[in-house]
Design a protein that fits this description.
The structure holds two protein chains of two kinds. Chain A contains three helices and 20 strands. Chain A is about 10% helix and about 60% strand. Chain A is globular. The chains are: A mainly beta, B alpha/beta. At the A-B interface, helix 2 and helix 3 of A face helix 2, strand 6 and helix 3 of B. The complex binds adenosine-5'-diphosphate and magnesium ion.
């Protein structure tokens, strides 16, 4: 049985109250807690290193896979390799996420290396949430790496969110797109206290007619620091768009380094980056509805990161 | 119910925008009019607490509210529809209406407020109040929020701006309904003759001062006379 802390972590990262339905793999405190295959989805534990291989049969539709990771034991550090083999023509949702509860004084760290092989014409939605908590002095560290290899005409949507309690994170995402493939990345980050978050995207638009949108929205509070790096390379006739929109508060620091590189005459690339504090008129409007300044600020941030 | 006593407002750079404005509003539907740049929006912001007067006092039902914050005034019964509505990323029409109501309200309730301002509710309820809405749509949502609040004083700053002529008839209806339903006071800044026409009293502001205040039969002939004169002069040129 999972204890109440673990259940709460699971709820935070996956909106689940207990082990999920359908295919899943649940990792708790450094080892596989349980897994389940479905008719079309099989999960195989790796022999040579920690992690799993997830095989999704071609043509699998309207199914989902959950692979949450929970850490509630202080001082645990792990690197996990998860590979997703998504067959041609699939239409599936993959929900990953990591929740750390660290009540001790040692640093807890989870680094997941997720590789997606997206088959021809497959459509996947990948959702990843990171959450940390704990009353000790031990830091919660997460350094996820995502590698995406998209075959022709495939579509991948990746939503990542880190809203609370992660002290330090370096997120690395690399993608390579074949002809006609589309990648949409939506990232949401909120940092507070002394936290640090860095995201680093590299997208290679290799195939003809492929396209990518990388959109990041973030809020940096207190003394926290954020860095947003994104590199989109257009190596064929393609379209690429990266956008970083950050709200800065208190003594926080935000750096945005969007980079676009066209290596083909028909590569259409755009980048946008905006960093600023909450607009005064937004606060005023909500205060004229009876909200206090603090409540107005919360509503604006909640909406922004919704 | 609302009273301004010798209210003056200067910008930080020392520019005088309103000079010694004294005004007692005890009618339920009062229109404020006057040329562009005369200080009408500034007056509304002083009432809502967005600006603090350089000197003078503001009273609501006999209570001195001059030192109250925007939020306190809102809680004490003042609503303010901006001339230029504010956009928010991620906040939906329903969120804003709930915030205006001060509680979670049902979708059907929220919808009825939207329908009243001529927005087909189900198309709008989940829309973000961001750049994807037109100026006219934002103005209507702004009015709906004031309607939801139903406070004892509602201040509207040029609500007709950006709303087309056909909808304008409905807009007049919105204010009529509000007038009949709430027992509060409606203060509308407007250039529209038809709004001035339904007002109990009209305040004229020019150059930062109240230059006239009275019933429409006292005020309108002069106002329209001045406009007619202009038109005549133009034609004569
Ligand atoms: N914050 C400010 N700083 C400087 N000038 C201002 C400020 N706010 C308003 N004004 C000026 O004060 C005058 C009155 O403005 P406003 O109240 O918006 O007029 P109205 O609403 O009647 O058109 C205008 O000349 C405007 O440019
Ligand atoms: Mg104005």
């Amino acid at each position: 049985m999972m204890d109440s802390i673990q259940k709460r972590l699971l709820e935070q990262i996956a909106d689940l109250h207990d082990v999920p339905q359908g295919a899943y793999s649940l990792r708790v405190n450094g080892s596989l807690y349980g897994k389940n295959d479905s008719e079309n989805i099989s999960i195989v534990k790796k022999e040579d290193q920690p992690g799993i291989d997830i095989f999704i049969k071609p043509g699998t539709k309207n199914e989902s896979v959950h692979i949450p990771v929970l850490l509630s034991q202080t001082g645990l550090k792990e690197i996990v390799y998860n590979d997703f083999h998504i067959g041609e023509g699939c239409d599936v949702t993959i929900v990953a996420g990591c929740g750390i509860h660290n009540s001790g004084n040692a640093e807890s760290e989870h680094s997941g290396i997720h590789t997606f092989f997206v088959g021809k014409g497959a459509k996947i939605r990948y959702v990843e949430k990171h959450y940390g908590e704990g009353d000790g002095n031990g830091k919660n560290v997460m350094n996820p790496t995502t590698v995406v290899i998209q075959d022709e005409d495939s579509y991948m949507e990746m939503e990542t969110a880190q809203i609370k309690g992660v002290d330090s994170t370096r997120r690395k995402t690399e993608a390579k797109l074949a002809a006609g493939a589309t990648l949409v990345i939506k990232e949401k980050i909120m940092t507070h206290g002394e936290q640090f978050a860095e995201t680093d995207f590299t997208v290679d638009l290799d195939g003809e007619g492929c396209g990518a949108h990388v959109v990041s929205r973030s809020v940096a509070k207190d003394n926290s620091r954020q860095t947003f790096l994104s590199r989109v390379r257009g190596n064929n006739r393609c379209s690429g768009h990266t956008e970083c929109d950050a709200i800065i508060m208190d003594d926080a620091q935000v750096t945005a380094l969007p980079q676009i590189e066209a290596n083909h005459v028909d590569a259409a690339l755009i980048h946008e980056a905006a960093i600023g504090k909450i607009a005064g008129e937004q606060l005023i409007k909500l205060m004229t509805l009876g909200l206090s300044e603090k409540e107005a600020e919360e509503q604006i941030i909640n909406g922004f990161l919704k | 119910m609302l009273e301004l006593k010798n209210v003056s407002y200067q910008t930080e750079e020392g520019k005088e925008i309103l000079r010694n404005v004294s005004l007692k509003i005890d009618d339920r539907f009062v229109a404020v009019t006057g040329p562009n740049g005369s200080g009408k929006s500034t007056l509304a912001k002083l009432i809502a607490g967005i600006y603090q007067p350089t000197s003078g006092k503001i009273y609501l039902d006999g209570v001195d509210i001059t030192g109250m914050s925007i939020s306190e005034r809102a809680k004490n019964g003042i609503s303010f529809a901006f001339q230029q509505p504010v956009r928010f990323k991620g906040i939906t029409v329903k969120d804003l209406i709930s915030m205006a109501a001060g509680k979670k309200i049902s979708v059907s309730e929220a919808c009825s407020y939207l329908s009243e301002v001529g927005l087909c509710a189900k198309d709008y309820i989940n829309r973000e109040v961001d750049g994807s809405l037109s100026g006219g749509e934002l103005k209507r949502i702004e009015i709906a929020m004031i309607n939801v609040r139903g406070t004892k004083l509602s201040v509207f700053d040029e609500p007709e701006a950006g709303i087309d002529l056909w909808s304008f008839n409905n807009l007049i209806k919105v204010f009529r309904t509000m007038y009949e339903r709430t027992h509060g006071t409606i203060l509308i800044i407007s250039h529209q003759e038809r709004i001035l026409d339904i007002a109990d009293k009209i305040v004229v502001i020019a150059g930062g001062e109240v230059t006239a205040y009275g019933t429409k039969s006292e005020i309108l002939p002069d106002l329209l006379g001045a406009q007619a004169g202009c038109r005549f002069t133009k034609e004569a040129e």
